[in-house]
Amino acid sequence: MDVYDVLKPGVQSLDLYTRSLLNDGSYESLNPELFAPDRIVFLDGVLQSRKSGDAAYHESLVHPAMFAHDNPRRVAIVGGGEGATLREVLKHNTVEKVIMIDIDEQMVEYSKTNLPFWSDCSKLSKSADSCFDDPRVETYYLDAFKWFIDRFSSNDSIINEEPFDVIIMDALDPQIQKQFVDTLYDGGPFLRSLPNALTEHGILISQVGEA
Predict the structure, then answer these.
(1) pTM here?
(2) Which of 4, 26, 38, 197 is the most buried (most CB within 10 A)?
(3) Residues of CATH 3.40.50.150 domain(s) within the chain?
């Protein structure tokens, strides 16, 4: 996992950013957010998130499905390790339970410590500053493929689990050349289990990259 703070060429300068860190009463120091660098996160060399694109990506991923459902009580998130998808889901007061399944515990823990603005629920909850600590949230560091197949296979389920009103797949783009990405979108047992994991009027939303 690699994290870079990057100033936008032609828009930001190192001098102005340095001045924004001083407590000298200058315009820059009084408005440091205007001069802060963008934070970009890579996982295994693949761009995962960037602070400047946080709202555009995560709001468009989450809210259309959540508003389209009449009463989204139970939500599952596949991936979403930095916590921003979880943050947007928790903005809906109908939500009673969110199950987030991400195999990479190291990324989740790193994000909690070093990227806390992505999982900041301090303005949404009186009981938790971090979205991961919200009492409605259960986080599993497991293989999401196996988790869904075991519970929602077309055959008799091994483990009983209440279905979800909304399932959000916040995983890598299908264009990314990674072996497990093929499994996400190849129509195999994982993908076939997802309709069984939805309530009658449930909604599945997936991040599928650029058209």
Answers:
(1) 0.84
(2) 197
(3) 53-206
Tokens at 182, concatenated: 């093929």
At the top level of CATH, the class of 53-206 is alpha beta
Q: Tell me if 1 sits within 8 A of 82, measured CB to CB.
A: no
CA distances from 80 to 66, 108, 116 (A): 16, 9, 14
Least Cα distance to 49 among 2, 92, 91 occurs for 2
Return the pLDDT at 203. Answer: 97
Tokens of 24: 């000298």
Q: One of 102, 134, 165, 170 is an active-site residue; which one?
A: 170
DSSP class of residue 97? E
Q: Is 143 a catalytic residue?
A: no
In whole angstroms, how far apart are CA 39 and each of 42, 51, 206? 10, 5, 24
